[in-house]
Amino acid sequence: IDIGSYEVSMKIFEFSRKIGFRDLNDVRYRLEIGKGVYSNRRLDPEIVDAICTILKDFRRIMEEFGVEDYRACATSTLQEAENVWIVLEQVYQKTGIRVEILSNSEQRFFGYKSVAAKEESFTKMIQKGTAIVEVGGGNMQISLFDKDALLTTQRFMLGSLRVREILYPAEKETVHYEKMVEELVHNQILGFKKLHLKDRKIDNIILMGDSFMDKLFEDKQSMKENRTVSYDAFMEEYQWVVSHSPEEISVSLDVSLEYAEILIPAMIIYRVFAEELGAQTMWLPGTQLNDGISYDYAEKHKFIKSKHN
Q1: Distance CA 246, CA 189 (A)
Q2: CA distance 166 to 146
Q3: Taking the model in full, what pTM does it have?
Q4: How far apart are CA 134 and CA 197, in angstroms?
């Protein structure tokens, strides 16, 4: 179970030494937990009630599937709420589900494990200079790989929800929203670029984070074949996103208005990083935190043996 910035999700997996692991069920509830946390640093009672209702539903589904073990994780965004520990105790009392908060490092580690689960593509990609760019609700992380090794990783307080909250008052009154987001991103990455990029060549970017990115690229042939898109194909969709209103994006992609609103800053952040890194290929593995948690579980219980450290 993953309690994230804007959705609560659960995946149910089956493990065996013969097949490793496969997912049986995927349930998602839209819930903007991060919104209140970023604006007033608290989890409101209505949000806590909503989390409890969702987790009770998850508990019922787990019982139907005969689940023998579970792990419920909240992302590091929740740590910013001053009342988070009281809330987690309330959640446990009402639902019987114990939620642990992952540190940023643990969250990224599981994120990498979810990508490493697609072993063949991942191993092939990181032979060349590769950046993993993960945009969440509250923050983003960039990690550089080269010749199979992780060189460096850094966190920026630049998530799509946080950027939207910072710039929301100006969004309706300016025609330069895109430029404002760009400036925010450029100011943050200047030091990182000087320190770590220098003459390093980055050929590929692995885009992690939001599953609704898939909807943008689902018609691309390369996406259907190996889940990659070229920089030019990305820019084509990018231009479409920034030239339409959240309402138009919502209708066209058949996603909620809230998703459409955070897609715009997320795409701007991805674009700025793609330009700065000079990458020509982007891979969208389509994995989530829950995939990494299950991969970790499978490794620890010896259902699978990973070739990649």
Answers
A1: 27
A2: 34
A3: 0.81
A4: 18
